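Researcher: Going back to the complex we discussed earlier. I've cleaned up the inputs and rechecked each line, so this should be the final set. Can you rerun the prediction on the complete assembly and write out the structure?
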Amino acid sequence: MDVELNLDAAFSALADPTRRAILARLALGEATVSELAGPFEMTQPAISQHLKVLEGAGLISARTVGTKRPRRLETAGIEVMDEWLARLRKSLENRYERLDDVLAAMENPKKEKGQ
Amino acid sequence: MSKTMLNKMTLQTEGETHVVVTRRFAASPEAVYRAHTDPKLIQRWLLGPEGWVMPVCINEARVGGKIRYEWTKPDGSKGFFITGEILEIGPGHRIVHVERMHLPDATPDNHVETRFDREDAGTLMTMRMTLPDAQTRAMMLASGMERGMEASYARLEEMI
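Model: Rerun complete. Updated structure for the full complex:
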């Protein structure tokens, strides 16, 4: 498996919200096209097209199980997910740090911020 | 800073459909509860990426009361909004509500229980979200990440 990440391909693959959501879904484990099509309210051909783009970027891969081809995250896809979760965590942390300041100001109305 | 360490947030998925966030605050449960229910206070901290503001903030802190939060981006254009209803309320210590994001299509309901428990001189907040299924949870986490993504795309555009 070629693990070298094609940055341009990965970046344009991730520019689409549906593909980002598919990646997040695959972070939970393997899924087939029909399993993905249901929750995303899209046709299977439309989902297949998105999967092709994600595969081309090296973010996911397929294996063959009988007549099915479940998709799963590749290392590069897992790294992207880790980075997103870290970013979500960071934005929530920033939010709660602002709340710390609001709470401090409620107790001590004269000192507005950063005492 | 030691205060930051002490107040470290946790964010974990639980089972197939839950997300649990915990955070400690150096204030009473009543104060943290107020900061979650008084629109004037909510508008000061419940924000998105740098520069986003919340011009519309409705939180009718009573059973059956409505929630509506609207965000705008730094350039003044509309971000997205959340609507919801309050199901149960324990003044000063507990809020149970449902909410959905409008992106602009409404996402499935997120059922949220937020508890404010006294711990030493401060408060332990525990927010437990329940989504209808694993896929919806994945999509919610992805769209939460998306807001961070948007900021990083903007930065990238500046760089190239």
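Model: Worth noting: The radius of gyration of chain B is 16 Å.
Researcher: Good, that matches what I expected from the previous run.
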